[in-house]
DNA sequence: CTTCCGTCTGGGAACGCTCCCAGTCGCGAT
DNA sequence: ATCGCGACTGGGAGCGTTCCCAGACGGAAG
């Protein structure tokens, strides 16, 4: 008698109202902790709620209020991202913490196929979320386009070149790359190469430009290897190529820590000491950097902050504030360890 | 005139009906691709849809149908998980692909604080998702408890000891640990130690038990180091301790690849060769295994399948099928590389 | 010509909330 | 005694769908 299966017929606000002996309106007011509810009514309602085991039906609430109190995070290519980009975890945590403070629920949506892409677009436009954060979108990203057209609150982490009017948060890749290359040069290196990646995004382009700017006249295009992915294996292949082209190479800037780790592996294999024979620097200050032998000198990205700021921008839009769409650039820092 | 801002007032099914000159019911039938709609009506509706820029409001749909076509994935402690457990990415992809096939949307929910925990519980009970998958829940997990009480469709990846009646997918940790330890022993090792972790879950306990079973009389409790986390640093600390206790140690089973990588680092540091002086085996067959020097012999986990099977179980429950709550154990395989 | 059935359509009635208007009550000020 | 106002409550209307029943239509079978 007592233990009815809750799954089949869930208690509604009306049941609560009936048990508490008040009206629907009063229950709603208690639920949303509004003013103008007498203590007696309030406690009658809370008692009734626990008695009937009431949980609010969000679908109905969303329908009535036209908001969901949820923000989506769109993650592309989860495979490469989770495995190769250790910053995604910190970004996610930063987003979550900012949303959590505002009592918004973060829901992550993974895109792994064409079909996913459509479904997610529908999900976003269907009122499941009030806003969206998109991480590392490439140019011509279909989701980014849908979001832009829909006019839904949104922010990017990283800068998609072809989308205007949506705020984004990022770092100054050019300056950071220039700074660490300069520092590497100042350790007395004469022949410095680079392994570049992700040239289909601003970030990749800018890191390469920064490298070039730092080197000035000493820049030699032959010593720049470009690969599509920021992967460990890209670092290995790239370094082999560099050694082929310039056996006298004495410095390498890898555009990610994962690639820098690959560079170290090759150098160890061919018996060159680091930082004795060759100085190596990376980018990201990810877990790769501290694990590497020797630990990498690299550029620290404020990944958590990146996420947090993007989330805050979305929340501000949700509050109806107008936000700057110019882009926010956070400070990076050089972390000097033992690899150069 | 033409380009009205879509954000403010979105077209509803009624607008579509009006423009198409049919009734609400017919539009709904077209939307859900039901039978019994004339070709004329169908094309009038599709035309009207694109004309007014209609997108379906899911909140209303969920309310009416009492389902959301979404499944939640609850991820605890994202920090340690994303950084230390490289399998989570594959599990996620496996889940996503299974759900995607059934046209269900995966939404990942991160739990990083007490408050998150409450909010997620509310989210799950509020009708945002039809089912839920929980990865690596510990004992006394509050979310797991809520899910169990709610009677919502659910599945676990990994086995939470204190929850009954919910299906789970896992591997046979005991047999796998026993098998790889046996194989290590067969390379002629006499003094084999273990670095165990995660003893607050079945998986950790079982790996230790498997190790013990493989060794039989040769088992020496002093040669088992236990640490809470499956982390790289745990491996480093553990190996130092083992060398202290048994300088003549010639084999190590680390309960994760990350720890095994730490073991290798220490052995290199003290000048012991691998696999010459010491044979090392890990567990997971994660990216750590192939990156390590030398590459690790380890236990391969079918991570993608783990996720897929869990998702399929949830989908089956959603179709109203009764599923076996006994637990599904997937096959592991030993991958023999160069570290032993 | 009637009957029956399959095809197609319209629209009332939910679904479970929130919003908001109308109204009651009690109390201090006039 | 009357008024005004703040505190509180009830309940109708509406959010945008789906569900489903009633009914129209047309053609084949009797």
From TrEMBL, chains A, B:
Ranges annotated as spanning the membrane: none
Domain HTH lacI-type: residue ranges: 11-65
Keywords: DNA-binding, Transcription, Transcription regulation
Stored SMART domains: HTH_LACI
Pfam families named among the record's database cross-references: LacI (PF00356), Peripla_BP_3 (PF13377)
SUPFAM superfamilies: lambda repressor-like DNA-binding domains (SSF47413), Periplasmic binding protein-like I (SSF53822)
Protein name: LacI family transcriptional regulator
The organism of origin for this protein: Agreia bicolorata
